[in-house]
Specification:
The chain is α/β, with parallel strands linked by helices. Helix content is about 40%, strand content about 15%.
């Protein structure tokens, strides 16, 4: 399966960063979030970042506009998931929110791979182990790529 379009669910710090890197790599990106204000902030952050990269010579100035054209924002999660070849979940660590997103993704599960980055609390914190004083929920949602 060839991946041409990526859905990055959540336009926060991690989400808009993943969207930017994906667009730089040449993928079309659908970036949904629950509020237009979050999407506008993400778009502004991506534009600022690309501007800094262009100024530093890391990205050609003429490529910046093409990268921005590859990123589409929406408040319609269903459309973003439905039209994507690959979905990356990057929403806040809220179990109810993650479950609701997973329910939507399951509708399209036979067609698209789903990947959820597992955040690392700190460099000294081993992967897969909650920070001291926090319990891991037995209902945590994790997935691996199904490519």
């Amino acid at each position: 399966m060839e991946v041409k379009q990526i859905g990055v669910i959540g336009a926060g710090i991690m989400g808009h960063g993943i969207a930017q890197v994906s667009a730089i790599a040449g993928f079309r990106v659908l970036l949904p979030d629950i509020e237009e204000a979050f999407l506008q902030k993400a778009r502004a952050n991506i534009e600022n970042s690309l501007g800094r990269m262009a100024k530093a010579g890391k990205v050609a100035q003429e490529k910046v506009a093409r990268v921005l054209e590859r990123i589409q924002t929406t408040t319609d999660l269903n459309t973003a998931v439905q039209d994507a070849d690959l979905v990356i979940e990057a929403v806040p660590e809220n179990l109810q929110l993650k479950k609701s997103i997973l329910r939507i993704w399951i509708i399209f599960a036979n067609r698209i791979p789903f990947w959820r980055p597992i955040p690392r609390i700190s460099a000294s914190q081993p992967l897969g182990r909650p920070p001291s004083g926090r319990r891991r929920s037995s209902a945590s949602i994790t997935s691996t790529p199904r490519l």
